[in-house]
Design brief:
- The chain is mainly alpha-helical.
- The chain folds into 2 domains: 2-33, no CATH class; 58-293, MetI-like fold (Orthogonal Bundle).
- Helix content is 75%, strand content 2%.
- The chain is built from 13 helices and 2 strands; from the N terminus they run αββαααααααααααα.
- It has helices spanning 2-42, 58-65, 67-99, 105-112, 114-117, 120-130, 137-144, 159-184, 189-196, 201-229, 233-238, 250-259, 264-293; strands at 44-46, 52-54.
- It has a two-stranded antiparallel ribbon with strand order 1-2.
- The chain is globular.
- The two termini are 45 Å apart.
Length: 295
């Protein structure tokens, strides 16, 4: 009987291969091969129209001493921290508000998530016009209330906070939706018991709501972190990495090396380092989520 079952299992396995093969080919062609080719390219010196030579890990050694690249890493981390903390904090607050029942709540939710529906390039173009020091509506509003105008994305100090402001405006609704889903699934019993014990609204939020929706907050934080690390279109359209290189993140540095300076081998090395950074950050955050889940 067992031999017959084993034979039947082998026959089933052979029958599955025709269905798995197309997916395997797609994964190989779209994911595995490009990454293997990128690793291969990163070990070579290749400039469009120039020679193609194997140089080992020289591109990675060059990255470690390239001040422009190192500054781009720091700017990426600075941008990422701000573009994660603000949307996550505001998203949690918005989810708490929209979880309560009030008149026209559905309409308010719809209006709140509208920025997330627009394409990043279109949003960037609109905000670019609003940030103009002389013609922008934002400086008009500031001067109308007696405040001094700002240079916004045209100043090296304020350019990254300005970009983060747009990023926060667009992606806070995403965090709100994720956390709101967690709030909708919370049981009512802990809150009733807390009210009987005389707990305040803040105590219930801090000791019941936050711990129960923490896995959803971690998921939202991971998604925002990955999106912020690889942000490109908004920065490219609004500031182009300027003024100077004051908003040049790793993605813009990679773009310039590949498509402006045509240093394909060096750009491939940047891609590999960038991927490793995103992978490590993602694994660290998911590890924190798993530990919190089983505590």
């Amino acid at each position: 009987m067992s031999a017959a079952n084993g034979l039947r299992g082998r026959n089933y396995a052979r029958n599955y291969w025709p269905f798995l093969l197309p997916a395997g080919v797609v994964v190989l062609g779209v994911i595995i091969f490009p990454w293997l080719f990128t690793l291969y390219m990163s070990l070579h010196e290749f400039k469009v129209g120039g020679d193609f030579a194997f140089i080992g890990f020289d591109n990675y050694v060059r990255l470690a001493s390239d001040e422009r690249f190192l500054w781009s890493v720091l700017r990426t981390l600075y941008f990422t921290v701000l573009a994660v903390v603000l949307p996550v904090g505001l998203g949690i607050a918005a989810a708490t508000v929209f979880h309560r029942k009030f008149p026209l709540r559905s309409l308010a939710r719809t209006v709140f998530i509208l920025p997330m529906m627009a394409t990043p390039v279109a949003i960037a173009l609109v905000w670019t016009m609003m940030f103009h020091p002389q013609l922008g509506v934002l400086n008009y509003i500031l001067t109308s209330v007696g405040l001094p105008p700002s240079q916004w994305s045209y100043d090296s100090v304020s350019v990254i906070p300005t970009l983060v402001m747009v990023e926060t405006w667009q992606w806070t609704p995403l965090v709100m939706l994720i956390v709101l889903g967690g709030l909708a699934s919370l049981p009512a019993d802990p809150y009733e018991a807390a009210r009987l014990d005389g707990a305040s609204t803040w105590d219930m939020f801090r000791h019941i709501t936050v711990p129960l929706v923490w896995p959803h907050i971690i998921v939202a934080t991971v998604i925002r972190t990955i999106d912020a690390l690889k942000a490109f279109d908004l920065i490219f359209v609004v500031s182009g990495g300027g003024p100077g290189t004051s908003s040049e993140t790793m993605n813009l540095f990679l773009y310039l090396q590949a498509f402006s300076f045509y240093n394909m081998g060096y750009a491939a090395a940047v891609t590999v380092v960038f991927f490793v950074i995103i992978l490590l950050v993602s694994l660290l955050m998911f590890s924190a989520r798993q530990q919190k889940q089983w505590q």
